[in-house]
Design a protein that fits this description.
By secondary structure, this protein is α/β, with parallel strands linked by helices. It has six helices and four strands; from the N terminus they run βααβαββααα. The protein has one domain: Collagenase (Catalytic Domain), CATH 3.40.390.
Length: about 140
């Protein structure tokens, strides 16, 4: 099982090498947590992460979910995660951390979705965000 992280945008600069290292650690941590007991991550030979612009993620959001506008992360069951660099940059400024740290948070979120976590109800969202925060805190030690 491996994870590939590709930068498909040019607007936001970030440390791709760090993000790739962090994504590998995130995958190793997230594979241990499954909310539905199916552990889909263990069955996927590859998870592809595409870091894209707001314009690109907005197109994907509309095409596949029928929702207009940009979002932070979209996860597909076949193992593709699409994250927005521009959204990450804006949120990172608001939360006073780096764009890389925000992007890896989106990757963790996508990985947990692949492993059966859901954020559509308040109870499920709380459970998912608790695991997400635990994994993210581990990654903040990577430099």
């Amino acid at each position: 099982m491996e994870i590939s992280v590709m930068n498909k945008q040019r607007k936001v600069r970030f440390d791709l090498a760090w993000l790739r290292r962090a994504a590998n650690v995130a995958l190793a941590k997230c594979v241990l947590h499954s909310d539905d007991g199916k552990f889909l991550l263990r069955k996927l030979p590859l998870v592809d992460v595409a870091v894209v612009s707001d314009a690109t993620i907005a197109r994907v959001h509309l095409e596949f979910m029928g929702i207009p506008g940009a979002t932070d992360v979209i996860t597909f069951d076949h193992g593709e995660i699409v994250v927005s660099a521009e959204t990450a940059f804006a949120c990172a400024k608001e939360h006073r951390h780096s764009a890389e740290h925000e992007l890896v948070l989106y990757i963790i979120h996508g990985l947990l979705h692949l492993n059966g976590f859901d954020d559509t109800s308040a109870v499920a969202k709380k459970k998912m965000f608790r695991v997400q925060a635990r994994v993210w805190r581990c990654l903040m030690k990577i430099e």
